[in-house]
Amino acid sequence: MTAHIPTQIPIQVPREADWDTAPSLIDGAMDLEMTAQDCNLRYWLNAVPEGTLRGRPDGHDPDLVVPEHMKSGPLYAAITQEYAFRSVAEEKATRGLAYLIPIAPDTDTMEFYTTQVFDECRHAMVFRNHLVALGTPADRLAEAIPAFAGSYLDSVLEPLEQMALEIMRDDRDFIGGVVMMTIILEGALAPAAELSERKWRPLDPAAADIDKGAGIDEIRHLTVGAAIAKQHLIDHPGDRARVLELIQRGMKLWSELPTHEMVLRREKLFQEGLREHAAVVGDYEIWPGRRLIDTTPEERLETADRWSTDMKRKRLTDMGLEEAAR
Known about the structure:
By secondary structure, the chain is mostly helical. It contains 12 helices and 2 strands.
């Protein structure tokens, strides 16, 4: 008997998950509309391994290596502080989001959050691995990461994690957890990730690729999370006041954290390295009409803040919670 050979079906990678055609994180999170039904497990199996990650197990083109100018000095300090912090943030997101899976209201939503847990776990891994590529011995990562990230792991991430766990683990509040992740956590951090991809592109292309791949995933997380929250409020209008109060409480907490201090510290280190390696950067434009070499730490931070504000306002308005954006 001849063995049956399955017919090879051509893989159709969705445009928003394709490495070459995906929009930027900011554009995608602002303009795309996707639901959990659109982005269930079957979607993920086609879109991510066959699209975003194809040939990029470490999150970047394997031919890219870390340049020597990244392995010491202010650029090294800036990227190790950033990637150490982000690796821990993504690990905490992985562990926290797992609490949403057993309380998801339907199969598509359960599958979507299962894939998001995997995405966040991968992000933590590629940020850690890049620290190794920068020169940190793999067997010393556990002690090196807190040393790189410093006190911001406690002052920024701990309060956010405690609020998220209170909602998702202790209260088993599904829609509260969705809103916490979509608006307060990922919604606020995403613009900084977009900035990271743009600023590292001429200096550390592998890091820029890592940020790009993570950003493609975040488009999905933000748009689907917003769609879930929007539909929940349509189906359960009585929850509106509670969800609004949760968003306002989360935004108040965010405003009290030393996040700007942390990012500005890294941007000032980046600025020192930018001056040292101006010849590498050349006339590269971080956004149309603006050369990276001409920007300041404050300008880059203000731009990321503006992206964050615009993105939150758009999503909150779509959800019918525009007053939370004021």
